Input
Amino acid sequence: MRYICFDVETPNHFNNRMSAIGIYAVENGEVCDGFYSLVNPEQGFDAFNVALTGITPEMAASAPTFGELWPTLSPILKSGLLVAHNAQFDMSVLSKCLRDYGIPHSGLTSYACTCRMGKKLLPGLENHRLDTICRALFIDLDHHNAGSDARACAEILLHYIKNGAIVEDFVRCYDLDGIHTVKK
Output
């Protein structure tokens, strides 16, 4: 099975556009095939998001837009099961970008969430935020950098798999058209 771990950063509180995306694949027991890009959100930035991510409007201005990146992103994202940490957020941003850019897509998409998995597989932690799990598992993290967050998600997923987790038990469906998780 191939898993596509991804993370997005957003420029503002609307959370309907990306300012960065990071993607790493997990396949054959290892993390491979990394991708990272800044994204021009074609929207304003909130000071909070700039402080959180370090991505400024000037940095994103010359980056490709989501629409320009989609021909590159689509085959990567469709090459395996989507996985994210706090996946509801990342899936909703992806869904809103597809909608706002008028990009045709299939409505239902399967995904797994390493945060949700962690609640069952690592019950003794104080919380299941990405940085907390990374500290517990000794995974390097430059938090709120989409590339680092995606890599950390992949390392967490690999840890779960190596310790006997059956990822398919955690798979849910996301309605990209309706922008919500569908009960399985």
